[in-house]
Amino acid sequence: MIESPVLERVLSEALRHGGNFAEVFAEDRSTSSALLDDGRVEELSSGRERGAGIRVVSGETTGFAHTADLTESGLLRAAEAASAVARSGDGGTATVTVRPLGNAGGPDDGGGPSPLARASKGDTLELLRRADEAARDSGDSISQVQAGCGSSRRQVLIANSEGLLARDDQARTRFSVSCVATGDTGLQTGFESAARTLGFELFDEVSVEELAQLASRRALSKLSARPAPSGELPVVLAGGSGGILFHEACGHGLEADHIVKDASVYTGMVGQQVASPLVTLVDDGTVGSEWGTFAVDDEGRPAQRNVLIDKGILTDYLWDYLRARKEGRVSSGNGRRQTYQHLPMVRMTNTFLLPGNEDADEIVAQTPNGVYVAKLGGGQVNTTTGDFVFGTTEAYLIEGGKITEPLRDANLIGNGPEILKRIDAVATDFAMTPGTCGKDGQSVPVGCGQATMRLTGVTIGGTAE
Amino acid sequence: MSAAVATDRSGTTTGEGTDALLAVADRVAGWARTGEDVEVYVARGDETDIRAYAGEVESLTSATSAGIGIRVVVDHRLGFAWAGSLDESVLQETLAEARDNATFATPDEHVQLAVPDGVAAVPVDLWDDGLASVPTTDKVALAVALEARARAADPRIRQVDHADYGDGSVEVALVSTTGIRSSSRKTSGYLSVSVIAGEGDASQTGGGFSVGRGFDGLDPDRATDDAVSRAVRMLGATKGPSARTTVVFDRRVASTLLSVVSSALSGEAVAKGRSFFAGRIGEQVGDAGLTLVDDPTDPRVYGAASYDAEGLACRRNVLIDAGVLRAFLYDTVSASRSGVTSTGSAVRGGFSGTPGPGCRALTLAPGPEGYDEDGVLAAVGEGLFVQSMTGVHSGVNPISGDFSVGAEGLMIRGGRLAEPVREITVASTLQRILQSLMAVGADVEWLPGIAAGQTLAVGDMQIGGL
After folding, report:
1. In terms of Cα–Cα distance, which of A308, A339, A324, A320 is closest to A416?
2. What residues of chain A lie within 8 A of the CB of B54, using their CB?
3. Is B406 touching A (CB cutoff 8 A)?
4. Which end of chain A is more exposed for a tag (fewer CB within 10 A), N or C?
5. CB B78 to CB A230 under 8 A?
6. What mean pLDDT comes out for the span B267-276?
7. What is the DSSP string of A337-383?
């Protein structure tokens, strides 16, 4: 994308006015998507974006400028703008040499179309039509179906004034189905998606018909759903229903940018018991082709496996370059950004609870009354107070140890440190789910995972008294 | 900080911006072939973002971006492509890609580009000429002052999580082979601050902001006071009890609530059976005190605009009148699908998005009592005041109407705010919320987003807690 001598001159320019660190992050991203809605292929869309973000760190201050102009003069202009935060004075002599980073370099073929664009558009449309048909065949009450397929190819190059030069070539593909069911009680919705850090090979592993059937099942079952209870009850989360619980209940609170500002309930708690001994929580950017997987993060650091909570004891936080440097340690490979137009910050990758020993069915059987959550939607947390919510999109009552009536969607609310201590059973049926994590205006793909587990009490926000 | 920042400007410059963008759009539209319609959306923007921390600049971002989005319609089939660049070769590639994409779409008689409809655009001036000449040092000083003010505002403020200054300018040109040719430009500025208050082991957070069309008029006191009072009054909060009660929504929260309701008023959602309002025009869908209007021609409104995202004039649309559902919002395609004409309500997320119908400037007609927040609290007497909601994207469904959110706020006792409560849920359905509206405040605040803030009281809501 950019030759090493150019990178070296740009980094030197960035440090001309002083500063301790400079970085060039260049990105070439192609996206394509296709949408089938209301029985018609409504829209095929393609996009391409190339550019570079240049960061200069001087003391505690970061200067950042980005440009879509990848010529040397364009990069130099951005470097000059980013360097304006450095106090004038002792600069002027910085020379930078960059060298490739071990095995983490990907090929640089000058960019190119997304995986979807390289596959035939016709093949993609065929998948959408099959999903539409499968959803509509699931029940006469399915009144609307939307199926979408999107893919992206993101080539990144990172060079910094410490000599690092890293590349990655990330292909991602996502397929989703949303259904509406219409009944006497009004409209209900169901959703399912599959997403991997893969190209079109996603569909060797994923059946679009199964996704469609799951989405329609969710909409159909809720037509006869009763209002969810309100108040505190035991909750069983199905395996792979969405490890979003851990993402919200503690993942965000373990991000070092919150920690260094004392804006997390987990500040100063390393070495302490913060969760039930059944909880071993890992963040791992290297797992197979999961949605949050990559070779190097957006600061050029290889992805790695980080154990955050070990049998209930908090072992570490998640780090990016800047926060790690402040503590005199190295990044944990969690510096990520949405695009070259954004500054990196501490982000999760694939965050999951390691499986336990119990049988999933047995956990339900041993729960006299409560709520069984088959699928979770999104969530949100206030890292300072630890209060978080997560929403159900498929849930049932548990009565007498059996899963009984479907419930309408509701949010569950809890406090991270309290909820983590209320986990009293974890099964073996581990599964991951893809998600999109938003923080400070930036979205990145993440994975979440967990096996069937029980919380002894969570507040459910239903409308039933 | 005394360094001046050289802006990163490539290509066109501000001032002659919209003419230059129109020229690009004209040229690309001119490449249309016989038998195809082409719409070209060209945008460019500048931004400055500054975050202050511990008396210093934590980060300073300055950048320019530009891009193009092209829609091609051939034989009632739509294709779209976009690019984050205005380089000549990119323009041609993007058009070719949009053209190729169109060949794969299902023919649909309703798929078409907007055609001028004779409605004159209301000029709204959204451009602050002064913004471009404000030195970066002044912006930095404002961000640093904001942070310092928040730290010093109250002894219980433990930390300032963020104190941000931001401004931006956006210029847009839209040209189509169906006769659309419009341009617009807009500047904006904001201050945003988030604080952490502490007492003993407990911490609580609060946020505040100030928005405007530029640098002048941004008010750090207002942002700080709001953030600090929201955090401090939550100190000592405990988990509240479960109850069925009246809920008063703070203005900011009410704005979010209206925004969610607005998706059910989209003509596209209605035409595709994805709205609980579908088929209910003329019916009483809310309390008689509910009158909801979308009016982007009001220049005071944050989302004000002269033209919609297809280049038609924005106009005032009355959606619900005295509780009776009167209208939906349409763009050209959804209007055709429903056998009506566009309401000038197309919106899009910049050059990488395609247009669809949406609200820009919702307000509720204030109740006859002219209540401010205190007035609404006094009228309600007993209930829950919600100062922030969480989980709106996971717990509010504008198709089914199911509504369940996390909340924090204060109990209302004897018509006044009482003890703080947290970690509770508030649930109902959007349908029931509209029917149970008890009071609409006259305390209109033009908040960023698509809906104004006004204190609202809603009866018969389920609170989930202990």
Report:
1. A308
2. 60
3. yes
4. C
5. no
6. 97
7. -SSTTS--EE--SEEEEPP-SB-HHHHHHT-SEEEEEEEEEEEEE-T
Q: What is the CATH number of the domain that holds A209?
A: 3.30.2290.10
The answer to whether residues A192 and A302 belong to one domain is no
Number of residues in chain A: 465
User: Does B7 contact chain A (CB < 8 Å)?
Assistant: yes
Contact yes or no for B171/B67 (Cβ under 8 A): no
Q: How confident is the model at residue A120 (pLDDT cuts 50, 70, 90)?
A: confident
From the candidate CATH numbers 2.160.10.10, 3.40.50.880, 3.30.2290.10, 1.10.10.2840, the one assigned to the domain spanning B17-232: 3.30.2290.10
Residue A97, pLDDT above cutoff 90: no
State which residue of chain A sits closest to B428, comparing Cα positions.
A463
Last residue of some domain: A223, A247, A278?
A223
Bridge-based pairing of strands B36-53 and B56-74 is antiparallel
**pTM as predicted:** 0.93
Tell me if A424 sits within 8 A of A277, measured CB to CB. Answer: no
Q: In B, which residues are within 8 Å of A263 by CB distance? A: 159, 161, 196
Q: Does B464 touch chain A (CB under 8 A)?
A: yes
Residue in the block written with tokens 């050029």: A300
3-state SS class at A177:
strand
Q: Look over chain B and give the mean of its residue pLDDT values, rounded to a whole number.
A: 94
- Do A67 and A155 belong to one domain? yes
Q: What per-residue confidence (pLDDT) applies to A93?
A: 55
SS3 category, A126: helix
ipTM over 0.85: yes
Torsion on CA atoms B16, B22, B24, B26, rounded to nearest 10:
-150
A335 pLDDT higher than 50: yes
- Tell me: the pLDDT tens digits for A245-281? 899 889 999 999 999 998 999 999 999 999 999 999 9
Our CA-based measurement puts residue A301 at a distance from the nearest CA of chain B, in whole angstroms, of: 21
The residue out of A202, A223, A244 marking a domain boundary is A223
Under DSSP, the state recorded for A291 is: T
For the cut 50, the answer to whether the pLDDT of residue B8 exceeds it is no
Q: B364 to each of A40, A339, B302, B359, how far by Cα in Å?
A: 36, 38, 15, 13
| Contact state of A409 with B400 under an 8 Å Cβ cutoff | yes
Contacts of B104 in chain A (CB under 8 A): 34, 41, 44, 121-122, 125
CB A255 within 8 A of CB A386: no
Q: What residue segments make up the domains of chain B, in order of their start?
A: 17-232, 238-464
Report CB contact under 8 Å: A261, B400: no
Q: What are phi and psi of B69, to 5 degrees?
A: -130, 130
| B1: contact with A, CB 8 A cutoff | yes
Please give the average per-residue pLDDT across B371-390, as a whole number.
97
According to DSSP, residue A163 is labeled S
* Substitution target from B49, B75, B462 for chain A, most A beta carbons within 10 A: B462
